Amino acid sequence: MIKQDRPEVTALDGRRRRPFGAPPITHSKGSLEYFGGSRAFVPFATSTAELLKRCPNPTYGPRVHDLIAGKRILVTGAGGSIGSEIVRQLETLHPAAVYMLDHDETSLHHLELQLHGNGLLCDDRTILADIRDRAGMRRIFSEVQPEIVYHAAAHKHLPLLERYPTEGVKTNILGTENVVAAAVEAEANQFINISTDKAAHPVSVLGVTKRLGEMIVSDYAGRGTHIASVRFGNVLGSRGSFLESLAFQIANGQPVTVTDQDVTRFFMTIPEAAGLVIEASLMADRGETYLLDMGEPVRIIELVQRFADLFGVEAPELRFTGLRAGEKLHEQLFDGAEDAEATEHPRIWSVQAKQTPPARFRRKVDCLYQLTVEGRVEDLLHELVELLPSERDAIRNDAPQPALAALAC
What we know:
Distance between the termini: 48 Å
Radius of gyration: 21 Å
Shape: globular
Number of helices: 14
């Protein structure tokens, strides 16, 4: 049971309230913020750092300041958790301008409110656009002429992409190509693609589309723009993350749903991940993939207990639901088709593919796009597998009933 003698929850509008009649939760180093209108609760950044026992604040060397200062920078997915934090951190490094691109107008409004104290949405640096629109991306990049691009826009919810794989292809593959092609055409100096640990040894539509996104980005290297992908695991406290669900369930006295008692995940705080992405920008060159140091994987049930301890509540009831299609029990950072090497940065590794992309890679990717237009889902899944022959056995064997498994045989 949850204790009843705690102060009310602090809402983002500054008012105090008891959400949905549930007992509120607070803590000396932060409280559960209530996002007005939505049933989502997340701790302050200091609390997420305490949950992971990690330092939440990024530190930059002088080379990062030299890289960013006075530059025109464009961030896609700027309204998302990682994109918005990249924007916030870039603003402290004195760029000439940071252009914030997103297709979600509400997220852009919220970000403007945080950055400038108003949500007027009249600033030319706030761009409403969809990365799936190739002509639109070319036009925007031609007008903005960004010198550095951080591509954070993506679909990231694994279960939804298992059900709607065409959406994963349109955003994580086609959208990524549209952005990197526009950046190269506009002669940007650097392009950084935000990836995920699910791209290593991928067994889900999310993992496969993000791995192919890395490969496409790499394919555009050597054309005048320094290009790289940056891969990392779950970001604790991001919108739609496990912590949001955990906080909501505890705040409302509900059982906490966990897929498996042994499941583990790699976690970082939002500021930590964004700061290391900016640091990795220095090493972007010919399409490398960089891997952020996320420490040791964390058992989810241990994270639940830490959360309960941090906010002074009794251990909640756990309900195990079983792994969902495409999910792994334990994530990996790189796989047997890759080699990892240390870099000049102590918390960033370089991941090199052992094999080159399959023959006619470019033609096969174009085929994916046509299949999404025609809605031929089964053929689309088959082509996704064919584009990653080194991962075929993993796709077939290592996840419970993934959408791709039957087609990898």
